[in-house]
Fold this protein.
Amino acid sequence: MRLLRTPEGIPADDPALLSVTVGNFDGFHRGHAAVIDELVEGAGGRGATPVAVTFEPHPVAVVAPERTPGLLTTTEEKAELMSPSGLAALLVVEFTPDVMNEDAREFLSWLRVGHGSHLVLGYDFHMGKGRCCDIGRLSELGAEIGYGLDVVPPVEHDGRPISSTRVRESVAAGDVEEAAVMLGRPYSLRGTVVGGERAGRLLRSPTANLDLPEGKLLPGDGVYLASASSLNGRPAALYVGTRPTFGGGERRAEVHVLDLEADLYGATLAVDLVERIRGDETFGSAEELAERIEHDLARVRQRAEARGM
């Protein structure tokens, strides 16, 4: 799969050989995967080139910056998740006020969607200023321009459509198991291990402080069982919070990989969140916190063994 920044690199000169989907695809959850699967399968049957189009930054960051959501996936993570799907290319479009206000016909023309092309879109897709262009309008444009349109129904969980908003809500609440069901995989964090205040060593449980991509959504504060996917899935304890026992501060993510003596400073560490062990708490002293951490690590080890990790 090619990662593109302009449509000139789309590997299909003839519009009739182009199949396209458009969306934010934040999180690349099971509903998104259903759209991509239908796009790729349909393109294969027509001998067409399947291309997905997404945006950077998240459109809400431009439309209403004060409501910018935390990112479930960075652009790089989206590309990695989509790569095995059979897509020929992922086109990342810079979302600007001009793109926000662009007429749907103009935008599709810029994408080289024309007579004989095919669009595959999610059931709730909208585009254009104020999200004014919905599936109905795109169907009308298809009749005028001559492209086909397939609409993919929602994938549901607990009787409601899976959405990035629902996944964010679950992650933010610390319910990473619920989020995993909707994503079709564990929610993950990946960042560079940076130097911290070394409080973990004083507490007899050294941790790796993760420097995460800007805007990445952290799960609700607390302690989690995690799997260090970049270290062959070794069990790990993940702490997310402000360390209130030490007076609080910025929210951070700290990882303690069980039975690992290696210095991870400067390395890229990826962890999959498996389950929440407890919420964040304030303790009366560093010694009291150290005792609780030992209990947490024992609990993490127990839960990892129960899961066969």
